[in-house]
Amino acid sequence: MKEYSLKHCLRILTMHLLAIAGVVVYGWSWTAIVFALLAFYIRHFAVGGFYHRYFSHRSFKTSRTFQFVMAFWGTTSGHKGPLSWATSHRLHHKYAEKPGDPHSPKVLGFWKAYIGWLLQEDSLPTDMTLMKDFSSYPEIIWINKYHFLGPITYLGFTALVGFCIETYFPSLQTTQMQIIVWGFLVSTLMNAHIAMIINTFCHIFGTRRYETRDESYNIWWLMPFSLGENWHNNHHAYPKLAASGLKWWELDPIYWGIQFLAKVGLVWDVYDRSYTDRESTSV
Ligand SMILES: [Zn+2]
Ligand SMILES: [Zn+2]
Description:
Blueprint: H1 6-26, H2 30-56, E1 61-62, H3 64-75, H4 82-94, H5 105-108, H6 110-114, H7 138-145, H8 149-168, H9 176-201, H10 223-226, H11 232-237, H12 253-263, E2 267-268
Antiparallel strand pairs: 1-2
Helix pairs in contact: 1-9, 2-3, 2-4, 2-9, 3-7, 8-9
């Protein structure tokens, strides 16, 4: 049984306190809120489309260069590195609702599955025996190790954008500190909580189209926040599929993004619906 880590607890607590204090002290503006939402969606797309559908499930193929871009883009979300994220996620599919599943509410209870597992020592470890398919890419192993460069770079970016907006576009009525508070702190926490909500809610309640051996559910109202990751029962039925929304009304913007990347030639061999009848694999 892993011990809780004081360092992780303090880091997550500090992020929340700084976000609350920042909003109280520096206030809000429409520009800062729009920036925060854009930053949230762009980075959530990297978690859902890249960390999840590419690094965990290999739902499409890409070049070595764009693979690194996807990895770095994902690190800006503060969800650690692509290989550690995918290690936990592959374990989640392998042991779903059984001991070994890192965030099963059925096994761990709600709060431990929501956030407690991330507060333990060595949370999100990288297991290269599970990630052999990336062992020949030293640059991915490097960014996985130095994942903190992503959030630091992104923080610098928000500071720069905030400075430029405050200095050169005063009509947008915001300040550098508002852009940092909303664009970095608030949007990063939103991204973290949406991932935690998907991990837990979608294994507790909702609707089930497929009788999978786990307790995964689709929750339609989470779509505007999770961009398609909410069709979680569909996903557990067909984990390798690039799309999670399988009916026309199951909107799946992350899949649309992957299709767009395929259209412009950055990714290819997208594992699509034509494969669903053929196999259902865990990776
Ligand atoms: Zn799941
Ligand atoms: Zn998955």
